[in-house]
Amino acid sequence: MSNGFDDIPFFDEEEPAPRKPAQAPATSTAASGPAPGGLGIAARAMAARDQTRAPDYLSGLNPEQRDAVETVDGPLLVLAGAGTGKTRVLTTRIAHILATGRAFPSQLLAVTFTNKAAREMKERIGLLVGGAVEGMPWLGTFHSIGVKILRRHAELVGLRSDFTILDTDDVVRLIKQLIQAEGIDDKRWPAKQFAQMIDGWKNKGLDPSQIPEGDARAFANGKGRELYAAYQNRLKTLNACDFGDLLLHPIRMFRANPDVLKEYHQKFKYILVDEYQDTNTAQYMWLRLLAQRPPGVPQNVCCVGDDDQSIYGWRGAEVDNILRFEKDFPGAKVIKLERNYRSTEHILGAAGHLIAHNEGRLGKTLFTDRVNPDDEKVVVHAAWDSEEEARAVGEEIERLQRGDSDGKKHALNDMAILVRASFQMREFEDRFVTLGLNYRVIGGPRFYERLEVRDAMAYFRLVCQPADDLAFERIVNTPKRGLGDTTIRTLHDYARARDVPMLAAAADLIETDEIKPKARKALFDVIQHFRRWSELLETTPHIELAEQILEESGYTDMWKNDKSAEAPGRLENLKELIRSMEAFESLRGFLEHVSLVMDAEQNADMDAVSIMTLHSAKGLEFDTVFLPGWEEGLFPHQRALDEGGRSGLEEERRLAYVGITRAKRRCHIWFVSNRRIHGLWQSTMPSRFLDELPVTHVEVAESEQSYGGYGRGGYGQSRFDKADPFANNYSTPGWKRAQANKSDATRDNWGTRSGHAVERIGYGESGPKAKTIDGELVAKSTTSEPSKFTVGDRVFHIKFGNGNIASIEGNKLTINFDRAGEKRVLDGFVERV
DNA sequence: AAGCCTTAGTTTTTT
DNA sequence: ACTAAGGCTT
């Protein structure tokens, strides 16, 4: 569990979460079996209760929190703003339900989105109640609980209970096969895209028969519905599920089997949902099925969320679920948590003013009364380009580390850089490597998604589940065994014709002469190996077996013989994979875990600055937060605006809100005038979100360096004394260029900004001379001067050779090259011949 | 089966 | 501009 954040206390300067009560039994009596288990916890919790006064665990709560904990009967929506003690309320509420004897641990259903959140909740309940929480079998993610339900009733939806869970990669490969089998051009209709469509439908809870006609037509000349149905059939044959099915199958099963649903109704006395604003339609349907009760019986559902932190609309989350909670659950009580324990008044003020620009919200205002005159305002900085941005952030970090500003030395662990898009990270990494500053990147490619780990897992899967064709196809020729396309196709056809797994097909076919002798020998060896491994499965310790599989299959040797730079790292990852199996009892148990828990631990020992996207920062907090890249087009992101319209913009704004509210003490926002996007230098405009920050809580940093045109020439006072605090930035070369571009076709990405009137102050002309790089950049991307080329000119390009200019858009030329065909290039890269 | 060349994509991410 | 992946050639 340690990625460095788990030990950061949720409350700053508050008393820690209540400790194990003195009268709690010292020894654990946790039940060993599953249901009806968990009496150990209940007993401890009951013992912890003090009949004469309010129990200890309630004492540290504010009135609203306490209300949310004690309102146990009937539907309850807790609107918990950032840093208001959400997790504390949830965990205390659970402890309270247990302590008052209202339910056994096994009668609580508590759902989270991520494994991390589930883990954290378990730990914290353990702290409250004392001891581990083995007795809460129904605390987990939507998906892990879905699997649990589904394994019990798999046969009701046409699966066997040992079904496999496919991840995205498997799904895409499977769909690709289906597309090809239909004779559809898989270049024109990419499997990946269709996988995303299916995912979208499943998020909405739609079967093939239910998808909108338009959607069905949109793919592969109207074959969308057919393909989706074919995909579901194929999954059934494979005895497999995708992630969406882990929710949809239980929904189907409950609808078709009211008696089963009733069992669960009786079982779950209290239901809790975390991060309710992130639920999608399918999750919502699932929840409603489980939460519904006959008239007169209270629906004990408690959903906790924050509409202002809903940032996953693009993957199917429906903020509406939280906005209409009261309609869905009549008689619901709504409690708002607005007292913030995390941030300074300036940070809260800035965030609150920004988010107030959103229309579709329930409306909360965070406040704190711990006001300190030394609290720093949110600082907005300008930089010339992203390189300077990274340099300046690096300097600020070193300053804090040394303790220059306030005499306190700040740990790198307390600082984070939160970016909108991951490509922004690189510049910071480069800079920090140069500076020798420790950093850690959160998110990004994950351990279990690495090629070598997935290969190894495919071997294990096939040993446990010989019918796993996807695993078979993945590794049958890895390492190379001379089993090429032809052989695989033969196997595939045979298997499909007889409806048997490919491994079985292979066993059949090596008896015949349909396969060339060489391939037959190779296949024979593979089959022998798997037979033996399967036999060892029951007798050999799983770690030993896993090592043996990787050795005997030649997989480790393959990487040992590989001379590429990555090979050693891959071998190291394989060792790590084996090591991580130690925590499990069997190979099967391990596989199940991995399919549901895709995250791996990070080392938290080192003191390091965290770099991550705004999305992965949700739920975390840091003393100092740096928010670079506040420019139109990047943040708010152009695509969010194009595809999401106004609601897209509002989601971006929520993202900005999430970013600011991660900060406890210091928040530094940056924007640059020039950024390279897709390899081209673009002039950028400051983000509209900057204009939405309140003057009283924000200051604009004086220009720290090279980037001249800002803050010099007698501007000592706050930029906010002016009508437009950022006016000066609009006099920079970047801004002028943006203006010039406005009347030009090159504005395509950037010129669509509206409703943002600014007064320009003619300052740049007489201002300090810009750096040399300025001249270069202007030369490359300015459009204020007419192009030195005209349509029809014959030009030479170093890569594409000779050609004629077909059209000119600012500094971008469209050229018909004699050999390379039509290309768009910058005018700086060609010369007249 | 390895290596080269062309082509497409380049916001955010969980399970 | 860069990268990664897929297709094609040798």
TrEMBL record:
Matching Gene3D superfamilies: 1.10.10.160, P-loop containing nucleotide triphosphate hydrolases (3.40.50.300), PCRA, domain 4 (1.10.486.10)
GO biological process per UniProt: recombinational repair
Any one GO molecular function term: ATP binding
Coiled-coil positions: none
Recorded name of the encoding gene: pcrA
Keyword Lipid metabolism on entry: no
Bias-annotated ranges (Low complexity): 21-34
Binding, ATP: A80, G81, A82, G83, T84, G85, K86, T87
Protein name stated in the entry: DNA 3'-5' helicase
Catalytic reaction list: Couples ATP hydrolysis with the unwinding of duplex DNA by translocating in the 3'-5' direction; ATP + H2O = ADP + phosphate + H(+)
Domain UvrD-like helicase C-terminal residue range list: 345-619
Location of the region described as Disordered in the Swiss-Prot/TrEMBL record: 1-39, 731-752
Cellular component GO terms, alphabetical: cytosol; DNA helicase complex
SUPFAM superfamilies: P-loop containing nucleoside triphosphate hydrolases (SSF52540)
UniProt enzyme class: isomerase
CDD domains cross-referenced by the UniProt entry: DEXQc_UvrD, SF1_C_UvrD
Assigned protein family: Belongs to the helicase family. UvrD subfamily.
EC number(s) on file: 5.6.2.4
The UvrD-like helicase ATP-binding domain, residue ranges: 59-344
Keywords assigned: ATP-binding, DNA-binding, Helicase, Hydrolase, Isomerase, Nucleotide-binding
Function: Has both ATPase and helicase activities. Unwinds DNA duplexes with 3' to 5' polarity with respect to the bound strand and initiates unwinding most effectively when a single-stranded region is present. Involved in the post-incision events of nucleotide excision repair and methyl-directed mismatch repair.
Matches recorded under InterPro entries: DExx_box_DNA_helicase_dom_sf, DNA_helicase_UvrD-like_C, DNA_helicase_UvrD/REP, P-loop_NTPase, UvrD-like_ATP-bd
